[in-house]
Design a protein that fits this description.
With 192 residues, this protein is of the alpha+beta class. The chain folds into two domains: 32 residues; 154 residues, Lipoprotein like domain (Double Stranded RNA Binding Domain). It contains four helices and seven strands. The strands form two sheets. Strands 3, 4, 5, 6 and 7 form a five-stranded mixed β-sheet that branches. Strands 1-2 form a two-stranded antiparallel sheet. Helix 3 packs across helix 4. It starts with a helix and ends with a helix. The relative contact order is 0.14.
């Protein structure tokens, strides 16, 4: 790559970053702001939502899919700021089902669709606990995997990867919804 090509590519990269920043600043005028950014109170102080999210503790979740989901939620909530005192308890339930999508002529299964649904409930840790938010509609996640002929390790590996994807997708959705609720609650508290 010549020096002229290098300077052209670096200047176009700077222009791309500048355009993205200008676009984000333009969105700020219409009320857009990052979900995890500081919440500006009327007095100008900023409160960080990450400390609020780190105060969420995850209750026990049963079965293998539940454990994968809980582990993913733990990474998102509690590991963001270790040592934060608990103020909230997130209870999650997940159920899974399988649907056969493909058969061979001899009746052997070749493709399976996995369906996972889950509900969550966020409450304070006080006595008595007060429910802050709960999912109104169960989350439904679909994923599938193939079952190759006489390759049992490959089928197990494909199923494990699919279960991990489903758990990650569900945990991301739950995390986003809880973050939005905690942010709404914080904004309401700072406006009062």
């Amino acid at each position: 790559m010549s020096q002229a090509e290098s300077s052209i590519s670096s200047s176009s990269a700077r222009l791309g970053r500048r355009a993205a920043l200008t676009g984000l600043l333009g969105l700020a005028g219409c009320g857009f702001r990052p979900l995890y950014g500081p919440i500006d109170a009327g007095n100008g102080s900023g409160a960080d939502l990450r400390s609020e999210l780190a105060a969420v503790r995850i209750g026990p979740v049963y079965e293998r899919q539940g454990q994968l989901l809980r582990r993913s939620l733990l990474r998102k909530f509690e590991d963001s700021a270790p040592g934060t005192p608990a103020r909230y308890l997130l209870q999650v339930s997940v159920t899974g089902g399988m649907e056969i999508l493909g058969y061979r002529r001899d009746g052997a299964i070749t493709r399976v669709r996995y369906t996972a649904t889950g509900n969550w409930n966020l409450a304070t840790m006080g006595t008595p606990p007060q429910t802050i938010a709960a999912s109104a509609i169960p989350y439904r996640t679909l994923d599938s995997f193939n079952i190759p002929d006489l390759q049992f390790f490959a089928a197990d590996s494909a199923r494990d990867a699919m279960e991990a994807r489903v758990a990650e997708e569900m945990s991301e959705e739950i995390f986003r919804r809880v973050a939005m609720e905690l942010r709404r609650r914080r904004e309401a508290g700072s406006a009062a």
